[in-house]
Design goal:
There is one protein chain. With about 625 residues, this protein is an alpha/beta fold. The protein has 3 domains: about 135-300, Malic enzyme, N-terminal domain (Rossmann fold, 3-Layer(aba) Sandwich), CATH 3.40.50.10380; about 310-500, NAD(P)-binding Rossmann-like Domain (Rossmann fold), CATH 3.40.50.720; about 500-590, no CATH class. The chain has 24 helices and 16 strands. The strands form 4 sheets. It has a 7-stranded mixed sheet, sandwiched between helices. A 5-stranded parallel sheet has the order 2-4-3-5-6. It has a two-stranded parallel ribbon with strand order 1-16. The termini are far apart. Its cofactor is Mn(2+); Mg(2+). Keywords: Metal-binding, NAD, Oxidoreductase. Belongs to the malic enzymes family.
Length: about 625
């Protein structure tokens, strides 16, 4: 019996049916999103002239995955494993993503943390630091601040307006404020400092996560680095360094360069979603990340994961914790320790949610939030950024009170404490117990990465609160057991990870599929509510506050649905015929989510073929990626 055709198989991004291919021979094998390697079936080998180019044995995708994993396992260290996966991605896109999913889902406990650590933090940080020495072939688009006139034509090489859905751009720096931390060089990417052109790997890694977690079509994504120079002297002295050999450009020239890039993107790819990644706080007279976001989000669909993604996933954890502790947002008293881009982004997101929930102004909602940074509690006497100013407390009211974390906790009596400081051990036993005196179920979120920089460990937090703390962390931790049952019996408590991957891919998917004109606060709140509604803790108080990455694709569907519905309600969705019912909308979303499986290839003539059929997606112009060292 012939299977029925999916209801939404007619959509341009449908993942059902065959793929048109106008290439033959080695050209097919050299196109990662068309190549099947040893899995090409006999009929396709004949049609596409591959018979003499492949061994006779025909293998399944699962057999290829097994071989790839065996090869991967022989690599001696994480960086070598990362390099192997990069090479695999350049050869066979389906096998690359199937390899990740095979390890991350089918072999769950054994490999999921390993794979995320290899393709993203911390191993990706090592790859970035060694970018120029490990370089084999270019990936993505490199734009130079010294050639602003080249921005438009260089971006134009990547396709027609309908070819690009998702763009991630970085300038290669990030700064998280470090409260009294010895490392205060300021501008960091995964905690490793200014890495110049090597930042392209962050854009690439982020796009891998969007595909892995939300089915964004990988051949319709574009990673970009804005090469503005570097202040990293080791790179400038390295004869192999591939970026601009000059100090990092700031100020007006930097702003004009970014503006040229954004305007070029909107002209060339008007339906694309723009994701800013790792823009340093001290660039161009303040927070580049926040300032650029506030500048462009009223006019284009754009997003910054460090500011908005972290805020969204943290708010989702807080909402779940408030549900467990039988409280509401109106009851919230929040202290944030570490007022950098992540800390202030979290505060912004929570302030907006309080204002919406309680129908009050942002100014009134901010009174429920206290920020602490290097000088202590941020007050009207503190030197503040524009982003921090809205949370500053009246200095006169703190004349007789300490402004350190312990003093603030004793005075404020918070029920939520968040750490984004990267100061290890900052949440001491005295501080936690002082909080617990007035909060029966304190919500404590030490979010700094990596684990060695956590403000406290879950084991200590639960020990100091007799198992009452509701904990989520910035890195994965094992469950914690202790004598916290009703009769003193041992209870095992699972620890949630505030992983942005459960939020930002679904937000992007919703914007891409709805072709949203903007990404608004209401759409972000809808995404947060979607994630918090899937919290395991809603059914079991000992379960994690957030769903894990193992169910991230279903989370992304729920998030995308909520974002799309909000976009439709606010007349921001430009895509036609979006289904209204939840069931149809979920099916509509899933049909357009790319999956790593081999679809049949259908031979078409080169004349009149699409760029996809000609193997030109994600390639500058029509140049084949043979790649030279």
């Amino acid at each position: 019996m012939t299977p029925s055709k999916p209801k939404f198989a007619h959509l341009p991004l449908s993942t059902s049916g065959p793929i048109d291919c106008a290439l033959t021979g080695t050209s097919v094998l050299n196109t990662p999103y068309l190549n099947k390697g040893s899995a090409f079936p006999p009929d396709e080998r004949r049609v596409f002239s591959l018979s003499g180019l492949l061994p006779r044995g025909v293998q399944s995708l699962e057999q290829q995955v097994k071989r790839a994993y065996e090869q991967y396992s022989t690599r001696p260290n994480p960086l070598a494993k990362n390099t192997f996966l990069t090479s695999l991605k350049d050869q066979n896109e389906v096998l690359y993503y199937k390899r990740l999913i095979f390890s991350g889902v089918k072999l769950i406990e054994t490999h999921v943390e390993e794979m995320f650590s290899i393709i993203y933090t911390p191993t990706e940080g090592d790859a970035i630091q060694n970018y120029s020495s490990l370089f084999r072939r270019p990936q993505g688009c490199y734009l130079s601040i010294n050639d602003p006139d080249r921005v438009l034509p260089d971006l134009a090489q990547w396709g027609r307006p309908e070819d690009i859905d998702y763009i991630v751009v970085t300038d290669g720096i990030i700064e998280e404020h470090r409260v009294n931390h010895p490392c205060e060089d300021g501008e960091e990417i995964l905690g490793i400092g200014d890495q110049g052109v090597g930042g392209i790997l962050i854009s690439i890694a982020k796009l891998v996560l969007t595909t892995l977690c939300a089915g964004i079509h990988p051949s319709r994504c574009l990673p970009v680095v804005l090469d503005c120079g570097t202040d990293n002297q080791e790179l400038l002295k390295d004869e192999l360094y591939l970026g601009l050999r000059q100090s990092r450009v700031r100020g007006r020239q930097y702003d004009e360069f970014v503006d040229t890039f954004v305007n070029s993107v909107r002209k060339l790819y008007p339906r694309a979603y723009l994701h800013f990644e790792d823009f340093g706080l001290r660039n161009a007279n303040g927070s580049a990340a926040r300032r650029l976001l506030e500048l462009y989000r009223p006019n284009i669909p754009c997003f910054n994961d460090d500011v908005q993604g972290t805020g969204c996933v943290t708010l989702a954890a807080i909402l779940a914790g408030l549900h467990v502790s039988k409280q509401k947002l109106g009851d919230l008293r929040l202290v944030v320790f570490g007022a950098g881009s992540a800390g202030v982004g979290i505060a912004d997101q929570i302030r907006d949610a309080i204002a919406a929930e309680c129908d009050i102004s942002h100014e009134e909602a901010s009174k429920q939030i206290w920020l602490i940074d290097k000088p202590g509690l941020l007050t009207t006497e503190t030197e503040l950024s524009d982003a921090q100013r809205g949370f500053a407390k009246d200095a006169s009211s703190w004349n007789d009170q300490g402004r350190d974390l312990l003093s603030v906790v004793k005075s404020v009596r918070p029920n939520v404490l968040i750490g984004t400081s990267t100061v290890p051990g900052a949440f001491t036993e005295e501080i936690v117990k002082a909080m617990h005196e007035h909060a029966p179920r304190p919500i404590i979120l030490p979010l700094s990465n990596p684990t060695r920089l956590h403000e406290a460990t879950p084991a200590d937090l639960l020990k100091w609160t007799s198992g009452k703390a509701l904990v989520a962390t910035g890195s994965p931790f094992d469950p914690v057991s202790g004598p916290w049952g009703a009769n003193g019996e041992d209870v095992s408590i699972d620890i949630a990870e505030c992983n942005n991957s459960v939020v930002f891919p679904g937000i992007g998917l919703g914007c891409v599929l709805s072709r949203a004109r903007l990404l608004t606060d209401r759409m972000l709140v809808a995404a947060v509510e979607a994630v918090s509604s899937m919290s395991p803790a809603l059914q079991d108080p000992t379960a994690p506050l957030l769903p894990g990455v193992l169910s991230v694709k279903e989370i992304s569907v729920r998030v995308a649905r909520s974002v799309i519905k909000e976009a439709v309600d606010d007349d921001l969705a430009t895509e036609r015929d979006i289904p209204e019912s939840d069931g149809d909308l979920d099916e509509w979303i899933r049909e357009q989510m790319w999956e790593p499986r081999y679809r049949p290839l259908r031979h078409v003539q080169m004349e009149g073929a699409t760029r996809s059929a000609r193997g030109e997606l994600m390639k500058a112009g029509s140049v084949r990626r043979t790649g030279t060292f």
